[in-house]
Amino acid sequence: MSVQPRPAAAIVLLRERPQGGIETFMVRRHVRSEFVPDVYVFPGGSVKPGDLEAETVLDLCIPPTGDYLGETTLGAGLRAAAIRELFEEAGVLLAVQDGQILAITSGQAAIFAKYRRRLQQNETTLAAIAQEEGLTLATDRLTYFAHWITPGAMPKRFDTFFFIAAAPEEQQAAHDQLETTAGTWIQPAEALAQYQQGTFPLVFATIHQLQALSEFTSIGAAEERLRHQSIPVIQPRAALRDGSIVIRLPGEPAYDEMEE
Question: Considering just the CA atoms, what is the radius of gyration of the chain in Å?
Fold first, then answer.
């Protein structure tokens, strides 16, 4: 019997390069992580009760727009979870204060670093931080990008919604040094090239997402296309090949499939 996947969300943080093209911020998970250890991923994690509260009870979010929001409309906690995880793992808080995107000044850095540590230690919630600082979560700045479900044969499973978001110029991304051991801005094509060289470890879903990102030349082009297209749910299958586990996309020829 397969494990029920946990709702989760992640943000593909993007910025445009002066010489053209886009790059994304990725973090390397700790080697002792229970799930996909020692690989580069986009900041993300499971939906928590506080994320649901931020979206449904406290009216702390800006409603998103788009033709194909699907399950990412406010109420499921997915967008708030993505923003919280980005803040915890990359130090960027997508929020609006006094009508402007949040700018964390040098004088505020210590305050928000404390908020980040308290979130990581489950001593507070994103909703509480937003109320304390007079913030509205910029959930409208997240563009639905991808939806992947961990194969049924895996012992730990996630039903993960991915969003792209432009990095605010007023903040600097940095990995958390707790769950992650490195953070880097990198072009999607370069990440894939380094993966092929064996120097940039990735997992199956991230490889496919980087391939999709490499088609975009700007953040605006990516947002425009994604906001007007339906996002498919992708649930790969785990299979055995020569005694090793491989992941197969739906529709691909199967080897000896693992029992689910």
Answer: 18
Crossing angle between the packed helical segments 126-133 and 109-120, to the nearest 10 degrees = 160
Structure tokens at 193: 């090239």
- Rounded Cα distance between 52 and 73, Å, is 12
**Beta bridge partners of residue 137, listed in sequence order:** 61, 95
E strand or H helix at 211: helix 204-213
The structure's pTM equals 0.91
Q: How far apart are CA 18 and CA 75, in angstroms?
A: 37
Please, is 35 exposed, middle or buried when counting C-beta atoms within 10 Å of its C-beta (0-12, 13-18, 19+)? middle
Q: Tell the CATH topology of 6-257.
A: Nucleoside Triphosphate Pyrophosphohydrolase (3.90.79)
Q: Which of 166, 258, 169, 184 is nearest to 221 (CA)?
A: 166
Q: How confident is the prediction along the chain (260 residues), in pLDDT tens digits per residue?
A: 678 999 999 999 999 999 999 999 999 988 676 667 789 999 999 999 999 999 998 889 999 988 889 999 999 999 999 999 999 999 999 999 999 999 998 889 999 999 999 999 999 999 999 999 999 999 999 999 999 999 887 788 899 999 999 999 989 999 887 778 889 999 999 999 999 999 999 999 999 999 999 999 999 999 999 988 899 999 988 766 666 667 777 766 655 555 44
Residue 181 burial by Cβ neighbours in a 10 Å radius (0-12, 13-18, 19+): middle
Q: Is 139 exposed, middle or buried (0-12, 13-18, 19+ CB in 10 A)?
A: buried
Domain residue ranges in the chain? 6-257
* Distance from the Cα of residue 18 to its chain's centroid: 24
Query: What's the CA gap between 204 and 39, in Å, rounded?
Result: 11
Tokens of 230: 């339906």
